[in-house]
Design a protein that fits this description.
The chain has 11 helices and no strands. It is mostly helical and 322 residues long.
């Protein structure tokens, strides 16, 4: 390779990249036109290749160092811009995208919520009137502790809050993902999970109600339940979206329907996971704390739920074309 000829041929590209980088570093990305941004990416790739060639052919320490410095600056600008755009996309999703996904799937989420509530009401009524039903769903140790000793079981979390919190998060995420994946069984598994969880909460509600422990029990549930239960309803809605793709693809082929409704379900999943992480932290560190008065716990749960409803009701404003 004729080194001097190669340097003379490639130097205009290096100077062009240098000029764009100076402009970008001093005035920011907004100072570049769309064509200049495309040119920047192209020049960065070509100069990176030049650096590799310079190292391979030993064109000289000075040229290699200059190219190394140029590509380092180019990398910082090109990929920093990508990261900024990625973070902007994430923030944009949680600001508008997730609420829009929830609103779009509102009917499926409402159906999932109704199944849970139905299971809870039926279980509460049966458990209140038939002790045998309660024995079918709840562990004997739990029933004995509440009925015979007048105690709740949440004190076991105290002293192991970090471990309990992480375990709770993992369990809740597993339940939610199972409800979502259950959509692939035409919604049967999703229905089962929602009804079962409703049955359990309804039965526990009857147990604590019969033994005058309803107030402290629901004080425990309110802070984390304000996020945890809606997350499960959203997961159920995502599962029913997948079930619709299988059972009622409509104008789509089933494979295409799964892509369309699967994307809607995925948007719900991206929002569900942070909700469950926050709920797990609250359940581990706030809900079981005896130092926090019950009324404060009720206030925390109510505030979180109102804030969640308000957030999920957001609608992205339509840009004014005038």
């Amino acid at each position: 390779m004729n080194i001097q000829r190669w340097i003379g041929r490639r130097q205009p590209s290096w100077q062009a990249l240098e000029t764009l980088l100076k402009k970008l570093e001093s005035k920011g990305l907004k100072s570049l036109k769309a064509e200049e941004i495309r040119q920047l990416a192209s020049l960065y790739r070509s100069v990176s290749a030049d650096l590799a060639r310079a190292k391979t052919n030993q064109v000289g320490e000075r040229v290699t160092q200059d190219l190394q410095a140029l590509t380092t600056r180019g990398y910082a600008q090109v990929y920093q811009g990508d990261r900024k755009q990625e973070w902007q996309a994430v923030l944009e999703f949680y600001r508008w995208g997730f609420p829009a996904a929830v609103q779009e799937a509102g009917g499926y989420i409402a159906f999932a919520t109704a199944l849970f509530i139905f299971g809870g009401v039926v279980a509460w009524w049966l458990a209140w009137h038939d002790p045998m039903f309660m024995n079918l769903l709840l562990p004997a140790e739990m029933i004995e502790k509440v009925r015979d000793r007048g105690e709740l079981w949440m004190g076991s979390i105290l002293g192991i809050e970090p471990l309990a919190s992480s375990s709770i998060m993992i369990n809740n995420i597993k339940v939610s993902f199972a409800a979502i994946a259950g959509g692939m069984t035409a919604g049967l598994a999703t229905t089962y999970i929602l009804l079962l969880n409703g049955l359990l909460i309804g039965t526990v509600g009857a147990l604590v109600g019969q033994n005058n422990l309803a107030l402290p029990f629901w004080a425990f549930v309110f802070p984390h339940g304000a996020l945890e239960l809606p997350a499960i309803f959203l997961a159920g809605g995502a599962g029913f979206l997948l079930a619709k793709a299988i059972l009622f693809p409509g104008k789509y082929r089933r494979a295409d329907a799964l892509k369309v409704y699967g994307m809607q379900a995925a948007n719900l999943v991206f929002g569900i996971v942070p909700m469950l992480v926050i709920a797990g932290i609250i359940e581990g560190f706030v809900s079981p704390q005896p130092a926090i008065p019950d009324l404060v716990k009720y206030a925390i749960g109510t505030g979180l739920f109102v804030a969640l409803v308000g957030y999920l009701s957001y609608k992205k404003p339509i840009a004014n074309s005038h």
